[in-house]
Every structure is written in C-alpha cells, then in structure tokens.
Automatic annotation (TrEMBL):
Name of protein: histidine kinase
Top-level taxon in the UniProt lineage: Bacteria
UniProt cross-references to Gene3D superfamilies, sorted A to Z: 1.20.5.1930, Histidine kinase-like ATPase, C-terminal domain
Listed EC numbers: 2.7.13.3
Keyword Glycoprotein set for record: no
Entry's transmembrane regions: 52-70, 77-106, 118-138, 145-165
Catalyses which reaction(s): ATP + protein L-histidine = ADP + protein N-phospho-L-histidine
Domain Histidine kinase/HSP90-like ATPase residue range list: 322-411
Ranges of residues in domain Signal transduction histidine kinase subgroup 3 dimerisation and phosphoacceptor: 201-266
Annotated keywords: ATP-binding, Kinase, Membrane, Nucleotide-binding, Phosphoprotein, Transferase, Transmembrane, Transmembrane helix, Two-component regulatory system
GO molecular function, one term: kinase activity
Species in which this protein is naturally found: Cellulomonas wangsupingiae
C-alpha cells in the first residue's frame, strides 16, 4: 500500500464517512415521507425545510467529518460521533438514522486496537447514545418502560454489536498475522539450518581434501627431493623413487575418488570391482608402511588389544576416521617441518574406556633444513575432528625439540577438549 498514490490511500477515510452521511440523510428523508403519510408511524420527525431538519442534517455532517478527520484516532472519533447523538433528539423516532455513523466508528475503533483497551471509550459512547435516544423518546411523548429501556437497548445495538463484530474480525486478523509471522520464522529457521548444514559440509570437505592432499603431497615432496640428489649418482635408486612418486600420486587420486563417491552418496564403486575404503584404526598400519616406503623413518607400536577394540565397534567409524586422519596429518607435518627426523606412532588401547593415538617426531637432523611453509589448516582440522567425535586432543613441543600429537578417543561418549601450541 505504501507505493500507491496518496489519494488512493485516503479513500477509506474520505469515502466511507461520506457514504454513511448520505445514507443517514436518506433514512431521515424516508422517515419524513413516512411521517407525512402516517404521523403515528414515525412520531416527532421534523418536516423538510424546518429548522430541526436542517439542524439534524448539519449534525450528521459534523459526525461524518469527525469520523473522517480523526480516522487515525479511533477513540476520539468514536466519542466525537457519539457526542452528536444527543443533539439529534429533534428527529424523534428517526434518531436511529443518526446511529449508523456511531456503529461504523465503534467497529473501526475495535479493529484498530483490542476492545479491552477501548472499554472506557465504548462505555462513554454508549452513555451518550442512551441519553440521546432517551431524549428523543421523551420528545415523542412516550411513557413508561419504553423511556427506561429504549435508550440502553439502542446503545447496546449501536455500540455493543459493532464492537463484538470488530473483536471477532480483529482476533481473526491477529491469528492470521501470527500464523504468517510463524511461517516466516520457520522459513528463516529452515534457511539458517540449511546454511549451517552447508557450512558444515564445506568444512568437512575442506578438511578431508586437506588431509588427503597434505599427506600424499608431503611424501611426494620428500621423494622428489631425494630424486634430485640421486639422479646423477644413483640412477637406479632414482628410478625406484620415481616409481614411489607414481604410487603416491595414484594413491592420492584413489583417495580423492573415494571422497567424491562418499560426497555423492552413491553405492557405485570408484572402479569396477573396487570398494570404497573407509579409513580406520586398522588402516594406520598401511599408512605407516606407505610412509616408510616413501623414505620416512616411521615406527609403529601397539599397546593392548587395538585390533579387537577397533573391530568390536567400541570406537565408532567417525572416531576411527578421525584417528586415521590425525596420524596422517601428523606424519605430513613431520615430513614438512622436520625432514629426516625419526617418527613414532603409538596406538594404546591398554587403558579401559579410551584409545590413545600418539605421533611423536624428533628434531630434524642437523643437515636437514625444513623448507618454508605458509600456515596451514592441519591443526584446525585436528581440533574439529576431536570436537566432532568427543575426543581429546593435545599437541606441543617435546623436551628434545621435537613435536608430539596425542589424540585420546573415548570408547563411550565423553567431553571433548583440545589444547596445545601453534605450530
């Protein structure tokens, strides 16, 4: 409505009062005609051209003007319109024609605000209507109970009935508004949930891509560095290293295809006869073996029934994936920041209620200088995996200048914490 012309927006305020005034005058005119035909049918009605006639027409015009002028102030408009009713007592039995504008004002007032807030105004308007109607009844010469109940009944009809109707319609409007607001809130909530889900999926995809690429590319970087030194002095060794680079590249492509298949949520294997591999605690053996094949010095130690705990389901698939990725990222970090340093991977299931995964590397050899690397998201990914699975993550420098990452995976639901130093 705000974009429509101002003249159009004023139509309900200007046209309705004018129409009510015209209808009221028409009803009074009909009463005059009826009185002229049968004086007993409409008593006390002034004739056309008499002073009382023009007085009534003028008062009804003022009532319509007040309804139009104070449309934004419904209580004031209702009281102003009702105040004109006592002045219409000169109409006698035709005073009901002047109550039409009161009915419209009462209806508008209740629509604009709850009826309970308008109670004083409604009561005041009813009293004014009752006084005016009583005065008109007395003017017609009526006596007895008609004088006593005529005014209150007319007031109830002119003020009470429109108020009830307006309350019903206002309640229905408020209910529809509440339903619309609820629908909008639910729509916004759904949008927010969708956005959160999308962000979580993006974070998960970024974490998986980082872990897969960082592990394999770190091994490739180490092997290509060795190839550069071997190609002249040890051609056969360089050929072996090239084969290992090819194997690492193929493994990375395979892992990326597996990830894409999981993201697409389809059951078709990435290769004919193949199977999507889910990284678990048992897969850490193969992870360490591939790191050794790439030239890294990595040792694996198992304490307690690690295989039995992994196979029994005491550690869920997501938690086992988190442990696998933490070992993968820790070995990749060791290759980048401490090339040539020996690493130790320890899986400890000796303590009941948790499996502890420890990856520790010594300080780099004196002849090995780690290359410059921009800050990555490896530790961020470890934090996220720990929080997601209820695990506890700790990391930091060791006393000999190395680095240690410890992930404690509970076999039952437990709080997740992570602490350490930036690397």
């Amino acid at each position: 409505m705000t974009g429509r012309p101002a003249a159009y927006r004023r139509r309900p305020t200007d046209v309705v009062p004018l129409a009510v005034w015209a209808l009221s005058v028409a009803l009074v005119s009909a009463s005059v005609v009826l009185n002229q035909a049968d004086p007993a049918a409409a008593r006390g009605v002034p004739g056309f051209g008499q002073a009382a006639w023009w007085w009534a027409v003028a008062v009804m015009a003022l009532q319509a003007g007040a309804l139009a002028r104070w449309g934004d102030h419904p209580r004031a408009a209702l009281l102003a319109v009702a105040a004109g009713v006592p002045a219409l007592f000169v109409l006698g039995d035709a005073i009901g024609s002047g109550l039409l504008v009161v009915m419209v004002a009462a209806y508008r007032a209740v629509l604009a605000r709850p009826a309970r807030r308008l109670l004083p105004s409604l009561l005041g308007a009813a009293v004014l209507v009752a006084l005016g109607v009583t005065a008109s009844v007395v003017r017609t010469g009526a006596e007895g109970w008609i004088v006593l109940i005529g005014g209150p009944l007319q007031a109830l009809a002119a003020v009470g009935l429109p108020a009830v109707l307006g309350s019903v319609l206002a309640s229905r409007r408020d209910a529809l508004d509440a339903l619309a607001a609820t629908a909008q809130a639910q729509h916004r909530e759904r949008d927010a949930l969708v956005q959160v889900a999308v962000e979580r999926e993006r974070t998960a995809m970024a974490r998986e891509l980082h872990d897969i690429a960082a592990h394999h590319l770190s091994g490739i970087a180490v092997m290509t560095g060795a190839i550069g030194r071997q190609i002249d002095v040890d051609p056969e060794g360089a050929k072996v290293a090239v084969a290992q680079v090819r194997e690492q590249s193929t493994a990375m492509l395979r892992d990326l295809r597996n990830l894409v298949v999981l993201l697409r949520d389809v059951d078709t294997p990435p290769e004919p006869g193949g199977q999507v591999r889910m990284e678990t605690l048992a897969g850490i053996d193969d992870l360490v073996a591939r790191a050794e094949e790439s030239g890294a010095r990595v040792a694996l130690e198992k304490v307690g029934p690690v295989a039995q705990v992994a196979a029994s389901g005491a550690v869920g698939p997501l938690a086992q994936l988190a442990a696998y990725r933490v070992v993968q990222e820790a070995l990749a970090n060791a290759a980048r920041h401490a090339p040539g340093a020996p690493c130790e991977v320890r899986l400890d299931a000796g303590e009941e209620g948790r499996v502890e995964v420890v990856v520790r590397n010594s300080r780099p050899d004196p002849g090995e200088v780690p290359g410059h690397h921009d800050p990555g998201y490896g530790l961020v990914g470890m934090h996220e995996r720990a929080e997601l699975t209820g695990a506890s993550l700790r990391y930091g420098r060791t006393l000999d200048g190395g680095w240690q990452v410890t992930l404690s995976v509970p076999t039952a639901a437990g709080p997740s914490t992570s602490e350490g130093q930036d690397r």
